[in-house]
């Protein structure tokens, strides 16, 4: 029986990434407030937030400094755009801060409102750059199967998940997908991780050669794949991939929308994985999700080409009304200040061994095939048979059942592609709360048996 608010919800709202039929009878979980890593629903029940919202509320809930930064900026100047030469202090200071933090040489910053818009912008900038450089045929973008890069037409095309393409008539022309670095599922019998990485780099090279290197503009990758099931690549994967990209002059876009800002214990995920992208997309933890904001971090060579093209055309013809929104920029700036002042990334590093050990212990559970983990993010793959690694019928959604039992146990986790349960708590989770999270998840797994 739906409550009054649940009934009003299903009569009016279309929920993203939701079974639109099922929710009509179950209704949504209506959350009312949050404090630290705890959420409370409208009946007052408490839930441990095991997903940082959607991989984003890094500083947890109820952070008064962020609230204050937003309200102060709202009072002072709630909005001005930055088109045609206007600007404001928060956008300037945030761009400066991102440049200073950048793990690779970055020349300029372009603001968006989301990760999808950042990756969409990346794709446009690559095309724009290659037109400026006089190579109009070099336009294809290679992504990876199981990647998640967003939902706009371009970024959903980069996403390598069938559910994002089916019946949306995607991907668009010019986007290709290469093999995902998922050793547990895709390694040949007896193949070492090193050999697996070598084979994946060879797969990429074969794809570039089949397409024609003169037509391949860029490659995009998350350091650790998130929504594709938390896929952690072998250690030497990125250096091997990068050697291929260099050989064929293919631009490398790093999607740091989940891994950026401490998730792997380093400021950017690429620093934990020996990955050196040319340009970077960020969003989510940039503002700890207190405001919607993303950014494209642009290297000098790309900026010079953009400058050239805009000289020719009279203007750089791209931008969102809310690019560099002053309230979002002020909140992001405060978020970055808190990360630094409170040594959040160092404190994440100290918590990783405990998180990793609790995660690894889940592999003893009869339902768990692989417990993948990097930093404070994990993907628990559910299998019907541990030996053969066979999965349950994906339509039965076993991970979704675990998630439902977890919710009953007062824990929020998420099920994603590949019948995996994902865990991505706020970075500020305490050691006692990490134990509580895994205790509750284990009870949920036991109840699913
Ligand atoms: N890139 C990655 C790696 C993501 O995980 C996401 C969202 O989960 C996106 C891009 C898209 O970001 P948004 O949902 O803010 O558009």
Automatic annotation (TrEMBL):
Belongs to the class-III pyridoxal-phosphate-dependent aminotransferase family. It comes from the Bacteria. PANTHER family: ADENOSYLMETHIONINE-8-AMINO-7-OXONONANOATE AMINOTRANSFERASE (PTHR42684). InterPro entries: Aminotrans_3, PyrdxlP-dep_Trfase, PyrdxlP-dep_Trfase_major, PyrdxlP-dep_Trfase_small. This is Aminotransferase. The keyword DNA damage does not apply. One of its GO terms (molecular function) is transaminase activity. Keywords: Aminotransferase, Pyridoxal phosphate, Transferase.
